[in-house]
Design brief:
Layout lengths: L2 E6 L2 E6 L4 H7 L28 E5 L6 E4 L10 E4 L3 H16 L15 H8 L23 E3 L9 H9 L6 E3 L6 E3 L16 H5 L5 E3 L3 H8 L5 E6 L20 H11 L3 E4 H22 L5 E2 L4 H10 L13 H17 L6 E7 L3 H6 L5 E2 L2 E2 L3 E4 H10 L21 H4 L6 H15 L19 E9 L2 E9 L1 H13 L6 E5 L18 H17 L9 H11 L5 H7 L7
Parallel strand pairs: 1-5, 10-11, 10-13, 12-19, 13-16, 18-19
Antiparallel strand pairs: 1-2, 3-4, 3-5, 6-9, 7-8, 14-15, 17-18
Helix pairs in contact: 8-10, 8-14
Length: 584
């Protein structure tokens, strides 16, 4: 590649032609502050609109006279360019830009959801800003909480456009755009309608991308505390697979290390009456979904089957591909299956009315909040799942209660909704649901388990956006499968299905790039692929350490069918565990 030489703060560095000043400076250890810039908002897509101007530097040789240039978006195209990142002119310009941003930003940092994680707040501290230089009018917008999942406070928007980039370029949802002109310009919805009235899927990737608190998850933490302190309620909790490999890093554990047993102990210490595992209902999901897959293959009808565990992509297909709504699995997600079983089978077992049994979910996802509020998951005015809190929100609950997971003893999930197999653990990674279903589908078709390493369907593993594979589910029976993560990749796969309905027989789609390990409610890692890979490996290690690795081997699942549901796909199972989706 053609190399050019640039001088930065008196040091020469050779870089490929077209390298930005920001990246060239990083190469020689020079830090330039940024705000709107993000190297990866998802799927390797950078955000560099150069809208905030915090990264201004003084450059000579780009134009006839020295200019102030945004380092994140200014390429080095020829030899001889001289850059000063800390000249008086550059420092004064940066400070002025930051003070202007602060002058139009709410000052209620102590009660902001991004307090101590806000990039604007961090810059203000680094610049030593102790007062607001520019006084005057400030923009104030009504807060939008219409979705039950994501809150927008445009008064905090700094027009960095990260949310817009991830929504449009990564997820291809198109719910967000620049709106207004001049002083009143913000990133909002078309015509500033409520988020619930748009094509938003509530995946939460915009929440992860936002450097301030302009977009955040709607919190139900206060309601959970209230329920825990209500003696008239029995409060139980379920933990999603991906939570156990993400929450530990907030308490000093290595990224990706499973802290399952300490998580259980922590939740018990918070006061939950029983601590259960969403993995149990993930195994249950596989029993229904694998049965559905096998029946569809035998009947050669409504193929390919699409897994329906992710509410973000269900929203996506309802909005964008209504002509394909006959192919998603009718199975509810593990979260909703858990709620349905908890408020029927389990409530009967312990003699508690469904209305007095509070089900709390610990999820890596913002869309789960929306999913639990869908009207089809409510019966006689009682929701199957009452409250959802994210991994990040649970961290705050632990800290509020003085609980450090690093100091907690190991503890076990309660029965009968706490037993699970390794197949359930891998639900948290892209390709995991498909792999788990294939393990049990093989058993249903052949009457025997896969042997040895054959249980590992490695062709559908990894962080690639779209993975295709041919899988032998019986001697001589080959099916074509695909796994996609990120809604932009989901769009590609669904367009393939539209073009050639017979191309695949089974497809798994996850809304978030990489799957639930990168959900919109997980601890922030801002596109750090190495940490995603560690979370992924953490879940595969959980799978491998278990004696039982196929959902149909779960003894408590067998007991549930024997005592309550009957056979797979029975009328009772269909009533409790299946649903329908609708065009939006």
């Amino acid at each position: 590649m053609d190399q050019v030489t640039v001088t930065i703060n008196g040091t020469q560095v050779s870089v490929p032609r077209g390298t930005t000043i920001l990246d060239a400076a990083k190469k020689i250890g020079i830090n330039i502050p940024t705000l709107c810039y993000c190297p990866d908002v998802g799927c390797g897509v950078p955000n560099k609109p150069a809208s905030c101007r915090i990264c201004l530097v003084e450059a000579t040789g780009i134009r006839p006279r020295p200019i102030l240039a945004p380092a994140c978006a200014t390429p080095i195209e020829r030899d001889g360019i001289v850059v000063s990142t800390n000249s008086t002119r550059a420092l004064k310009a940066r400070r002025t830009v930051l003070e202007l941003l602060l002058s139009d930003h709410p000052k209620a940092c102590l009660v902001c959801t991004k307090n101590q994680e806000c990039e604007l707040q961090k810059l203000a501290a680094e610049f030593g800003i102790s007062e607001i230089e520019y006084q005057g009018e400030s923009n104030r917008f009504p807060i939008d909480e219409s979705s039950n999942a994501i809150m927008r406070d445009l008064s905090k928007c700094i027009m960095c456009r990260r949310c817009e980039t991830v929504c449009n370029k990564v997820q291809t949802v198109g719910a967000l755009t620049g709106y207004g002109r001049g002083f009143s310009a913000k990133v909002g919805t078309a015509s500033m309608v409520p988020l619930a009235d748009t094509s938003c899927t509530f995946c939460g990737q915009c929440v992860n991308a936002c450097p301030v608190g302009a977009i955040s998850g709607i919190s139900y933490v206060k309601k959970v505390w209230s329920a825990l302190n209500d003696p008239s309620k029995t409060v139980i909790v379920q933990t999603a697979p991906a939570v156990r490999v993400a929450i530990g890093q907030e308490f000093g554990f290595e990224p990706g290390k499973p802290v399952t047993k300490k998580l259980v102990a922590g939740l018990r210490a918070l006061g939950f009456n029983k601590v259960f595992d969403t993995n149990f209902s993930a195994d249950l999901t596989i029993m229904e979904e694998a049965n559905e897959l096998v029946n569809r293959i035998k009947e050669n009808k409504n193929l390919p089957i699409l897994t329906s565990c992710c509410p973000g992509w269900i929203n996506f297909i309802e909005h964008n591909f209504p002509d394909l709504l006959h192919i998603p699995s009718s199975c509810k997600s593990p979260q909703q299956m858990f709620g349905a079983i908890a408020k029927s089978y389990y409530a009967e077992k312990i003699g508690v009315k469904p209305a007095d049994l509070i089900v709390v979910s610990i999820m890596p996802c913002q869309a789960k909040k929306y999913e639990a509020a869908r009207p089809e998951f409510e019966h006689d005015g009682v929701r199957d799942v009452d409250y959802i809190i994210t991994t990040r929100e649970l961290c705050k609950m632990f800290r509020e209660a003085g609980i450090n997971l690093g100091n907690m003893p190991d503890d076990e999930y309660d029965s009968p909704l706490g037993e699970s197999t390794g197949a359930a653990d891998i639900f948290g990674v892209t390709g995991g649901v498909l792999e788990a279903a294939l393990r049990t589908a093989y058993f249903f078709i052949n009457g025997k388990n896969l042997d040895g390493d054959a249980i590992n369907f490695r062709a559908v593993r990894g962080l690639s956006g779209v993975k295709e594979a041919k899988v032998e589910v019986a001697p001589g029976m080959i099916i074509n499968v695909a796994a996609a993560s990120g809604l932009g990749n989901a769009r590609k796969v669904l367009e393939m299905v539209r073009k050639d309905p017979k191309r695949f027989q089974a497809i798994e789609i996850m809304a978030c790039p990489g799957g639930c390990i990168n959900g919109g409610g997980q601890p922030f890692i801002h596109g750090q692929t190495d940490q995603l890979l560690k979370r992924m490996q953490g879940l595969y290690s959980e799978d491998e350490r278990k004696t039982l690795r196929m959902s149909h081997e779960n003894p408590d699942i067998k007991k549930l069918y024997d005592e309550y549901l009957g056979s797979y796909g029975s009328e009772k199972a269909h009533h409790l565990l299946h649903t329908n989706y609708h065009q939006k």
